[in-house]
Structure formats: structure tokens, C-alpha cells
# Entry
Amino acid sequence: MPVDDPARPSGGNVYDRRLCDGLRSIGYGVQEHVVAGAWPWPEPSARRSLRDALASVPVGGTVVIDGLLASTSPDAVVPEAARLRIGVLVHLPVAETLGVGDPLGARQREGAVLGCAHAVITTSEWTRSRLLARYALDPSRVHVAAPGADPAPPAPCEGTRLLVVGAVTPIKGTDLLIDALTEVADRGWTCDVVGSLEVDPWFAARVHEQVKAAGLRDRVRFHGPKVGDALAERYAMSDLLVTASRLETYCMVVTEALARGIPVVATGVGGVREALGSDGDGAAPGLVVDAEDASAIARALRSWLDDPVLRSRLRATAAERRTSLTGWDVTTTRVAAAVADAAVEVAA
# Structure
């Protein structure tokens, strides 16, 4: 899948694009190698393409590899660690995507790759902690470079316009969201869902059936994926971001909403609390609920919809949090420093 594919935008792809552009802006020569394939478990030809891409880098060169490619490809990555300075960018530890057991040896493969890397860059403290707990890594070589947020005009934030941004997939918990909205169907609200319906078509069809069965077709509106100005327009027309995710390593849509002063209702998974942050008094600009609990999401939504004092407080906290968000320039600088500081003896 191309990094810039507007039909399937993702936080990981946005991060990779902004990192490449950011490194160029501060004077680095960046050569992109796009390796097609069904990663992290691609066909043999895709693995060969990854090996060829690494082999094309001159001795002593610096390479930052997306963990989606690197983590299950020790055969391609490990041999190159003797002659290249290798950084692995881990958006999501591959083991987190597995169910019970590990029939493909993903943990062993990922451990071998991260163990040979001269720098491991993660997008949240949560991810860093997971990797250090799972693998015998030198903590000094495992770094955090959280995603940046672009400045944006504050949204009006009236109250009843809910927004969901993310592909309609089980990991994003869209089914849980619809269950929660069904529980608050007696309140006045609309919900715009912005995200691909093609990543998991079967699941998306099931969600549409949920909406139909609950009688919410006029209130839950699916818009497909949006990027750039079209996505910004959706944020500007929203009062509350809602995410029911089952897993997030950071959740960039949270900071995208906060950049506009929009409060958040979110499941407290992974690095969501890091993205949410707090104001100077430690108050969060949103409500955090347990994962896999549609009723908890419904209670949070009911509180938001029914309590004008709560809405006012969360808006004020979101407005303050908006001023403390860091930009992509900070992200870029942290990645560059992590790779530059990595000690490596290169063999010709």
C-alpha cells in the first residue's frame, strides 16, 4: 500500500510522510524506498525487494525502516546491521497484533530485528515500555518520538455533533461505538464516521447492519476516508471526538482534535492517555473509559450531552491543551537525534 494512498490513510503513513519531509527540511538527504507487499507477512518477492533496497545503501549509510517491514524480516535486516546504521521505527509491536499463541514466530523475529538495530524509535512511552518488557534491549537505544500536531483554528464546539476518525475495523472498535450510540439514541446527536470502509469490508458491512437495526441510519453518517482540507472541514464541524479503539499505540486523531480545542471521549488503551495529556492542573481534556465496554462509552456520551457544566470544563481544558501540543519539527528532531547518537562500528 503506497504511503500517500488517500483511499487508506493511516496514522503510521502520515507519520512516515511527515518524518521524510521533516528530515529533508532540516538538511538531510532522504531517499525513499517503497517496498510493496502484504506486510508484515508478505510474499517472498516483497522480502527480496526489502533485501535489495537495503543492499543498495552504501556502507556506513543510515537507514530508518518502518517496523511493519522490519519486525518480521530478520533475514533481510540482521545481516545489514554490520555495515549500516539501522533505526527501526515501531508504530505497533508486531506481537500486539497476534491472537493467542505465536504460530509464525513473530516475537522471535521481532526480537532479533530490534536486538540488532542501532536505534529503536517508538511513537509513545507505552510502546517503549512494551518493547523493553518483552525483549532484552538496551534502554539507551530505545527512544520515543511522539507524533506532532499541526496548528489549526479552534472549532466552535456546540455539543451534539460527534466525530469518529479511523478505518471501520475491529481494532478501531466501530461496533462498540454503534452499541454505545444505540444506548443513547434517546438523546439528540449526530455522528460522522470518517474512515475507510475497504480495509475490512465484511466488518464494515456488519457495522452498517448494526446501524440499520438500531434505527440510526439518519444519524450515523459514513463519509469514507478524508485527508487534507476535507478532513479539516469535518473537524471544524464537530463538537466531540469519540474513539472506541481496542488498541492504539498513540492515537493521532486525539491530538488532531485537541489542536482545534475539541474534547475527546476515548477508551484508555495503549498510548491514548499520552496523546490526551492534561492541562496545568492535571485535568484531562476529555473522558477516558474502559476498553471493550460499550456501556461505559454510552455513559460518557450521556454525561457530555446532558451536562453543560461538564462540556464547558472539557472545552476549557482542551483549549489549554491545544497550546501545549508539539509540532512535527519536534518529532523529526527526536528521530534524527536517536539515529545520530546510535553507536555503530561499520564493517566494509
Notes: The chain has 14 helices and ten strands.
